[in-house]
Amino acid sequence: MAARIDIPAIPQFDAESDASSLGTRWEARLARFDIYVAAAAITDKTQKRALLLHLAGESVQKVFKGLKDTGDDCASAVKALNAYFLPKKNVRYERYVFKQIVQEPGESIDQFVARLRTLSQTCEFADADDAIADQVVEKCLSTRLKRRVLRDNTTTLEKILEEGRALEQTEAQVQRMKTTDDAATPSVNAVFRREGRSNQTYQSNQQGKSQNQNNNSKAKCYHCGGPYPHDRACPAKGKTCGNCGKLDHFSSVCLQGKAKNNGRNTDKQGWGKKTVNKVDAEQGTAPNDGLSSTDDEWVLSVHEDHHVNALHGKQPRVTVSVAGVDIPVLMDTGASVNLIDQPSYEAVCKHQEISLTPDSTRVYVYGATTPLPIAGQFDATVATPDRSTTATFHLTRGKGGCLLGYSTAVELGLINVPKLVNAVDTHSTPPSFTKDFADVFKGTGKLKGYQFRIHIDPTVKPVAQPPRRVPFHVRQQVEEQLEQLESAGIIEPVEGPTPWVSPIVIVPKGKDKIRVCVDMRMPNTAVMRERHPTPTMDEIIHDLTGATVFSKLDLHQAYHQVELDPESRYLTTFVTHKGLRRYTRLMFGLSSASDRDLPRDHSADPRWHTWSAKYL
Q1: Nearest to 237 by CA among 252, 254, 250
Q2: How crowded is the C-beta side of 430, counted as CA atoms within 13 Å?
Q3: 18, 84 in Cβ contact below 8 A?
Q4: Is beta strand 325-331 parallel, antiparallel or unpaired with respect to 403-404?
């Protein structure tokens, strides 16, 4: 016989709240009771019955009193209670709850399936595994897993679990490899400079994020040298430094003392103060003063350290003369300003007195949100052995190297920008041949020996459309245009019946002019197009390879210079308030007008073929 042990009682069952889940909760309750009885080693049926009602609580006992056929053992009591509670289980609601389950962030595929399997027990699915598989495909977080499962319509739940475990394991291994690579190889996205003392400790990104986090608790105060943050006020507050005589810091952390030890000279402007460089992989950690200025300038890099520049190979460094002093500079085609660091400026000042002027220009490293500390600016002559120019230099604090911007480098001839497009000389006065052949440049010409034929589908029934009334205030302008077209031989009057009639459309042109157009939508339904291929831009550019001289020839109303075949003219008939007219020349709006390369068809001369391609 198993030994009895003392175990805590299970909570009472609430039979009065949440009637929609009453049956589900009762089944779970019975399962817990069976575990409790087995753990307590209770085998007597009468004792089990009494314990069932005692642990269930007062609400269940009230229900039990009103039941019939409760028997005298535990099995009969459970049967009677099941008959009361289980019919109140709403299967549709349980399935609704099942469908709402989604995979939580950080939850493995096995944990997700385990939750679904527990809920499926109350849903009475015909195939629980199939329902769980559908829910996993729909509500899992991995898009890659969804793609793999949807490729095979016969994938089982076991196969889905295998795929999910493999993907999770692969992702975890990649993350561990990435973390190792990041710790071994520093990445530099931006360079921020901070001058003077600060209560923050800036750790090098090369030490890794994990080392940063571990050292946060050991940060030192820049004022007293003790642990930071302080529980009370900083001990150095109000104290005088024995090194520089200034307030609020001890000599052990005095930056001027460190500057002297590093061989730097201090002057009245305080340039001996050490600057703290910070390399951030995340730009959101950079402070932002919230200011904006139209004088903002950008540079790619001003630091000499290779891991900051992130440039591989030989850098474009040259030596130029600034106010008579040879200064090594880095040429930067992406920079819009010239920068000079403190040591180089001091070298120039030894040779020639240079006065700084206040500088409101804000210079940013590429991708940064905090400007570089600029002490001032000055104008100086910068020269190479071949050229010289006057340029403005912005002085940066510290030893960061010198940078020559794009404009100054171009002026000195250090950067050669090739001209990709040659200039085209235009004449302000017309060439002489326009006078020698004046008749060609007047009016509307006509292509000789060629007539354009419109192919018409005889199965399409002709349509004679009613006229569109022309407003009275533009009728005079319409009549004038019709007379001009008729006198030029472009249109002609129509006598007798005609199967096709189209209305005109008056379109404003500018302020006081109009354009008379014909609505050819109905006739175009009967036009059979030839659909000759039109040269593409790539083909035209290929034909122009090697060409050095270009001419532009603009045909005046090019379509109207092509004569229409007399048998095709009836399709262009249009109606106006002055009667019927039709075109004798090729008209705008005809769907087949652009299908044929007219000069190519007109002449076998290869020169026409070349000209035609360029024209298109």
Answers
A1: 250
A2: 9
A3: no
A4: parallel
